Amino acid sequence: MIQRRIRPVLEQRLGEVPAVVLTGPRQSGKTTLALGLAAEREAVYLDLESPKDRAKLTDPELYLSGHLGKLVILDEIHRSPGLFPVLRGLIDRARREGLRNGLYLLLGSASLELLRQSGETLAGRVTYLELDPFDAIEVGESPDHLDRLWLRGGFPESYLASSEPMSFRWRQDFIRSYLERDILQFAPRIAAETLRRFWVLVAHNQGGLLNVAHFSRNLGIDVKTAGSYLGLLSDLFLVRRLVPWHGSIQKRLVKSPKTYVRDTGIVHALLGLGGREELLAHPVAGPSWEGLVIESLLAVSPPGVEGFFYRTSGGAEIDLLLSLPGGRLWAVEVKRSLSPHPAKGFHSACEDLRPERQFVVYPGDDRYPLGSGTEAIALPHLARLLQGAPS
Q1: Is the pLDDT of residue 14 over 90?
Q2: Is 2 left (phi over 0), alpha (psi -120 to 50) or beta?
Q3: For the purposes of burial, counting CB atoms within 10 Å of the CB of 163, is it exposed (0-12), middle (13-18) or buried (19 or more)?
Q4: Max Cα separation, the chain?
Q5: 314 is in which domain, residue-wise?
Q6: What is the tens place of the pLDDT at every residue in 42-84?
Q7: What pLDDT is recorded for position 279?
Q8: Is 169 a member of any domain?
Q9: Are residues 179 and 86 in the same domain?
Q10: Domain boundary among 81, 98, 130
Q11: Least packed by Cβ within 10 Å: which of 39, 46, 244, 365?
């Protein structure tokens, strides 16, 4: 069984604050993680998608008062926003009785609305964590494990499937379920087929600059609607908008964000790429690998680290620019080659920004210098280096 990197962090937070909100996409492993904690702590677990569990909360204050002092786990909390004021009152009551921390673990599959609700009601009583699908550290550092992660993506059921066809079918079913069931919870007026076509367009544009007008023309919808589709997929942790670096520099910088379908396995399923050979023959192979690197590095980044890309009108470019506390910068170029060489634009960008560290991430296993202060490095090795970077 793959151990989740976030587990000790979650346990630490539960010892520090009354409530922890754990967000992340559906099927990323939130419930499995929570059930493991529940078994160890004799916690109360309620699935708010279950009619039986929802019935227990007909009078939520009465029911939850009976478990005050225990860890109570509420799964899919966004389905019952009316619980937040009740939780606030119970947390304040518990504090008066000397029970301060580790009272509630709230799980949710949507970010924006959940954070707004909990932030307004539970201010000063809650902290937030995000559980992503498996990353390059969690699956192990061998090239085979990394290749499997790239092809199948990091959703546990997909990554751990017993065969490539089973993994591919799971991802197809996942996409269908999201479109026909899950997304309707948050945007009931959106046509599932139109949203699917939009999602496929984002996959085709993997790692490309965002052009909402292009998406809207292709789908025959207005720009505002296309923008709302992108916002919805972002809020559900399915798409990332990587923003351009905006520091003060005397260069003409690209201002549009880049978009990525966050899980590479979902990229490949959206594009109908069921096997490794099909993927390698497709133009998305390079951008897909770039997306895997970016997601893995951002997933393991310590608090205070932000990710950007850098591009000027003159061709200087950095695929991922990591901004660390204290104004330090790490520049990362991504190459899907066993003989990686940074492009001229990467050197130009590094001359502009003078980053503290310069890396080229490639699918090999060795680490070696490339000259001009740049190192070739495997993704898991850089992920561990970043994870331990001083704050």
Answers
A1: yes
A2: beta
A3: exposed
A4: 67
A5: 143-387
A6: 899 999 989 999 999 999 999 999 999 899 999 988 778 789 8
A7: 96
A8: yes
A9: no
A10: 130
A11: 39
Whether the Cβ atoms of residue 266 and residue 171 lie closer than 8 Å to each other: yes
CA–CA separation, 155 vs 159, rounded Å? Answer: 6
Q: Which long-range CB contacts under 8 A does 83-92 form with residues at least 24 apart?
A: 83/57, 84/117, 84/118, 84/120, 84/121, 84/122, 85/121, 86/60, 86/61, 87/19, 87/121, 87/122, 88/121, 88/122, 88/125, 89/61, 90/61, 90/64, 90/65, 91/18, 91/19, 91/122, 91/125
The total domain count for the chain is 2
The label of the residue with tokens 């590094």 reads 350
Beta-strand ranges (E) seen in 205-316 are 208-209, 239-242, 258-261, 306-311
> Residue holding tokens 């190192």?
375
Q: What is the pTM of this model?
A: 0.92
Q: Are residues 121 and 159 in the same domain?
A: no
Summarize pLDDT for 278-300 with one digit per residue, the tens: 999 999 999 999 999 999 999 99
CATH code: domain of residue 29: 3.40.50.300
Query: Which amino acid is located at 365 in the chain?
Result: D
Is there a domain that residue 137 lies in? no
**Contact criterion met (CB below 8 Å) for 101 and 70:** no
Does 126 share its domain with 177?
A: no
Boundary (domain end) residue, out of 101, 130, 159? 130
